[in-house]
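Protocol step 4 of 6: structure prediction from sequence.
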Amino acid sequence: MAAPSPLPALPAIPVGRDTALDVWRGVALATIFINHVSGNVLERVTHKNFGFSDAADLFVLFAGYAAAAAYFGRFRAGERTRTVLRVLGRAVKLYTTHLALVVLGAAVFATKALKNGDLGLMSVIALEPLLQDPAGAMVEAATLRYQPGFLNILPLYCVLIGALPLLMAVAARDMRLALGLSGALWLAAGLTGANFPTRPLPGGWFFNPLCWQFLFVIGFALGARRAATGRASGAHRGLWWAALAYLAIALVVMRGTGLPAAGWLAPLPDFLTVPEKQFLSLPRLLHALALAYVVAHSPLQAWARGLSRHHPLAMMGRHSLPVFCTGLVVSMTGVALRQSGYDGAMFDITYVSAGLGIQVLAAGLVTLAETRRAAPPARLPAGARLS
């Protein structure tokens, strides 16, 4: 008699909104918020401390998946002009939202700096250029070359969504070609150090779009496959155990020996051997994919899929942009407060819990507004009239 499979059977997923995706996006958003309140006690238990990747990797992977679900079907069905215009409109919305967050973030820290008489607070998230050359800094911010701390993932998202029409055009012809070109660009940028420039701060984009686009495209390919077949990718037993083993190795490294030093596996380049965020190095990319694969083919996926669409995590994931922006402003306020002397475990737990509650509230309000817009207009009884 054959041994029972350790993997649960995966039921077909009807084409439509995947609640599990919304739930995991909600988890990623909550984790990003906790990590952004730098130094708080809850940050120590987020999964970045137990492996090579963090919630930002999952956020980009899920963004690609969701982009395929939202746009690619219509694009392939022939609605190309309309779909491209929708995509570009989304990119513009992301761009203007980012600029608004730069102003709000600067205002949060400037308020605390003026109140405390300590302009040094502006350096916590690299806001010094706004003090030294306000006009120049705003010009560089408008061109996405100046990115203060915490304000660097939306520029990446702007580029990814802005390039989505090109990705869809190639993928509509051959998805394997799209993945191959994306992987080649990721490898070339990682090996050569190519990146988008930043000014006045050196170092290039914190999330190098030339590398991070590969994770987005992988998510896009998975989302397109799910939309086309109506079901998630099947689990391969050997691959599932290999992914789990890799997660275990990463856990031992992070909690035991620590990250390997540069050059530890010479002559191979560090990009292929050392977990690194800016260029999305190979060990980090594999960890994000392994984590997603193991969870997607585990009982956790069935749990997430079984939740109501009105579950707090599902609502957060479904309205990721307003929730992310709300969390970003609240987290920057928390960092400013911690730098001003508000700290300790009690403050951390209270503030982070309140911040998560505010994000859930924001998601709930957007959901309520969405429901009211979708409701049919009330009809007056026969014979009734407005006075």
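Step 5 (inspection) to follow. Residues 1-15 have pLDDT under 50 and may be disordered.
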